Amino acid sequence: xxxxxxxxxxxxxxxxxxxxxxxxxxxxxxxxxxxxxxxxxxxxxxxxxxxxxxxxxxxxxxxxxxxxxxxxxxxxxxxxxxxxxxxxxxxxxxxxxxxxxxxxxxxxxxxxxxxxxxxxxxxxxxxxxxxxxxxxxxxxx
Length: 141
Prior knowledge:
Elements: H1 13-34, H2 40-59, H3 66-92, H4 103-138
Helix pairs in contact: 1-2, 1-3, 2-3, 2-4, 3-4
């Protein structure tokens, strides 16, 4: 494998969903068993949702098809949110509306994920334009 950077990997977002969902279910189960807080399962679900958003956003930099990656990363985000929320509700018996201010975290994380994806996509486009112009001005070296 060599010295391959994490930023050079082209990993499909649904593979990330699979790995993080398994880890999230384990984390929710552990937190339900050891925590006295009634919302700890929801907090673990939100933690993994934010982790998915960060990983998917960072890995979007190296993908060859941005539109396809966007579609599947958004689908993956919804899947992680539904699995985490459903499992947290099933374990705690507390709905998202009863979890207090945690219900706003879904809205904030979703908006933040979309903004982060947009920023990274724009940065990539700017870099591509700058590289193309540099090649045009200076030629291939």
